[in-house]
Fold:
Amino acid sequence: SALRLINTLGAMLAWTSGFGCLVLAWGVTFVTPSPEAGLEPFVVTAEIGQESLGRDIAATVTDVRAATTVTAPNGWFAEGAWLVFDLEVSARDRASGSLTTALLRVGDRLYRASERPPSLLGQALLVDLPKAGSIAFELPPDSFSAGEGAGLILAREADMRADSVIELAVSLHEVTLAPATEMLPTEWATQ
Structure:
């Protein structure tokens, strides 16, 4: 009878240990990061009027506005649903480089800043010498009434993996859609 008790306890211990190992393995799958987790960009949250510092870029978004017609200082203009950001950007770590990445995330879609008007996109940046100007995004016509949130993403490099990006959250339904707006000329910022 004692032998039977020992065998029963041994079997219960084996089953309990096996079940415990399964639970532990299941828990490890939840805490193990995905292979892409180490490559995600480091987000620096921006606020309008406040300088935001990434690893290799400094940016201050000074204004956000929307319009159905946008005009550039060289006379270029276009109609549509436009979201315009005024900003000041500079490099932080190298004497050369440019504002390569300007994206707008709306829901699960990404929009690239328009290359049609002259803007800060692609402009050469120098360390601690900010350039001021605008970037513009042409969006679907119903973007402002849909009430979705958006995020402006700025980076010096096109490959943002494991690097810092500056991101500004924007509520599109809170931005007043004006009939027209002008983009700022791209020039050295006055301090």
